[in-house]
């Protein structure tokens, strides 16, 4: 995962694998967060693996108009389980991936068998925060959707339909790929991400507590949604209006209130933050009302009416729970007793889709792990190792000495599996081959950071070339590991 960086990086990786005659060796493609956005876009064309040039062209435009995005949002707002995920999904689809794909995932079950089989990953928010590990990792494929470690799934077309005790009570329309992209890439839904965007005056011990979280929710949701709306809007006057809203919000949040907060009790601080929340929402409402009477004003009015109540509610990934009152002792209490669950970005747990490829279900010999993450290098690898240990699944040994490379990694590492362990080829996007030194490595990661305005065409082209070069430079190493994997598979059959 990694937002638009991961979405573009994956397209570049697959494009070069096609050029180097490696793409047709892949049995699966697994994605987390931003990489699932490009997966959804790719699989909209059943012949995508033979037409990678067209996939690249889609990244570069043309854009989807705001009218189309708002039409989808207006229709979705009338349905049950409408949440911030829908807003995030439509703006991400239109602004970053430049298409609104209304097919549903189960449609791909009858797609072209020569494409790698797609596996999209999420986590269930309540279990992630308070439940056992077995109730956290959630995967969606064209055929089934469910909890990887529990081994409990429902047909993908029935995800979001109403169940009780395992019986289908009410069939609902399957979620389309626009909404699914919102589910899979909504990192903003979790408090840990929100805490990374704290005004400096508030980012001190004692001031950040549960009372401050709703305030951070409102500011960060509005700021990020402005970024996404900017990626769709082309009218210069409307862009100026959006800049003004961003400035008004920043002016409100940057006002240092630390002295006042320090003088208050916990309950008084909670009341203050609630008041400041309302003031932020008023900034957005007043901005919308004071716009000149243009088409953009009607769009802005619609957005504020739809979005502001959802921001206050702060609900993401709302989905009917097919395990509600399901009679199985393995179902955690956090799932058994709730009529709905909340699916959010799997990068909150592990930012590479390792869990879906461990163990006997798919019996994988070789994982090519493209590392597009913004976190510490090797963190996804060590998290996956610890995850595998907890759920008792095979995972290759990780030599701890490689961790010294985290500030300036090589472009390819091989962790060889033994017995039932998969071999992992780990490939950092930015590395010693495409960065001059540690400072350049750090600068590249900052240039393509996750939370920023949508990339320009020049940045997209640059990132595509970086991802392509990583595959091109390591073609022989990949081929060598593929040959070893084939021999291992052959030996298992003897």
Task: Describe, in plain words, how this protein is organized in 3D.
- By secondary structure, this protein is an alpha+beta fold.
- It folds into two domains: 3-179 and 321-493, Cytosolic phospholipase A2 catalytic domain (3-Layer(aba) Sandwich); 190-313, no CATH class.
- 45% of the residues lie in helices and 11% in strands.
- It is built from 18 helices and twelve strands.
- It has helices at 3-19, 34-42, 52-59, 66-77, 84-95, 125-130, 177-184, 191-194, 213-230, 236-253, 258-262, 266-289, 295-313, 333-336, 379-390, 438-447, 457-473, 475-493, and strands at 28-32, 117-124, 137-140, 144-147, 152-155, 162-164, 167-170, 318-320, 340-345, 366-371, 413-415, 423-428.
- Strands 1, 2, 3, 4, 5, 8 and 9 form a seven-stranded mixed beta sheet that branches.
- Helix 4 packs antiparallel against helix 5 (84-95).
- It starts with a helix and ends with a helix.
- The model has no long low-confidence stretch (mean pLDDT 91).
